[in-house]
Amino acid sequence: LVGFGSEHIWVSTFHSSCVKILRRYIDCIGYDNNFTIYDTDDSKNVMKDVCKRLNIDTKNLKEKTILGYISSAKNELISPERFQKEAADYHIKQVGKAYAEYQDMLKKNNALDFDDLLILTVKLFKENPSVLQYYQNKFQHILVDEYQDTNHVQYILIKLLAAAHRNICVVGDPDQSIYGWRGADIQNILDFEEDYPDAV
Fold this sequence. Notes:
The chain has 200 residues and is mainly α. Helix content is 54%, strand content 5%. It has ten helices and four strands. The strands form two sheets. Strands 1-2 form a two-stranded parallel sheet. A two-stranded parallel sheet has the order 3-4.
């Protein structure tokens, strides 16, 4: 339908778009461009090592539970430092220590987990205005489907990309939000007109 120029259109998930961006520019934030992407099993194995190093009793605090806390924190753009600072009880403080050690081990291995793909792209854009400007100009028109199921980091990523040209179209239905359990924030779609008052 588009014809000429269609090869420049990206149609992809948030994660796959971020992989493309990071493969090109992640060296700007201290990683090698040939980074490895860890799957769930890889992350669990790293967390097993982390728990051994920190003497965390995995009968009381399972690796999967710790990784769940970390994923939720990353989706809210909460760093290990902030997580530790805000930890209120012993249980959460243990998670905070594990989060910091886990990120250190990933960095040493030049590896990213799925959540890192998003948060490191946001970090890249915030710390490198010229890279952000390049992608703002590349993506002058943005369409996001199922916007009611975006989480905080996805919301910030889109907001950064759309800031220059403000040509953004979102599709979604607040009554069909089903991913609250993995960080989706229905407020993103409810606040769309407030974020973009010039929307029609």
